[in-house]
Prior knowledge:
InterPro entries: Split_barrel_FMN-bd. This is Flavin mononucleotide-binding protein. It comes from Agrilactobacillus composti DSM 18527 = JCM 14202. The chain has helices at residues 3-9, 50-55, 94-102, and strands at residues 14-19, 27-31, 36-37, 41-46, 61-72, 77-90, 108-119. It is α+β, with helices and mostly antiparallel strands. The protein has one domain (3-119): Pnp Oxidase, Chain A. 24% of the residues are buried.
Amino acid sequence: MDQKFIDVMQHEGAATIVTINAQPAHVVDTWNSYVKVTEDKLYIPAAGMTSIEADFKTDNHVIVSVGSKAVEGTQGPGAGFHVHGTGSFLPAGSEFDEMKAKFPWITRVLVIAIDQIEQRI
């Protein structure tokens, strides 16, 4: 995993989740600070996200767009990434319990298995 991506995720910014093949595509926003990053997954607390969840019934491919102007990018201040992957919702289990302790308002956790991370800016 790219260190610059980790740096971006350690700064506050919007994280945008898009169901790329839905007609129409659905878009949900959260915050970088809410996202738990592991070597191959993103864990995102979810309370709503019903449109994203409904889209997963036919196609669970997503793009997550993240960025921070506090990290140097390819053209100067500001770095941004697209994370391509597949998503599912976790309604229980140890990862859910860990996220629920931090975010008591969640009803489940969006888990994104990372296929590719590409720097865009």
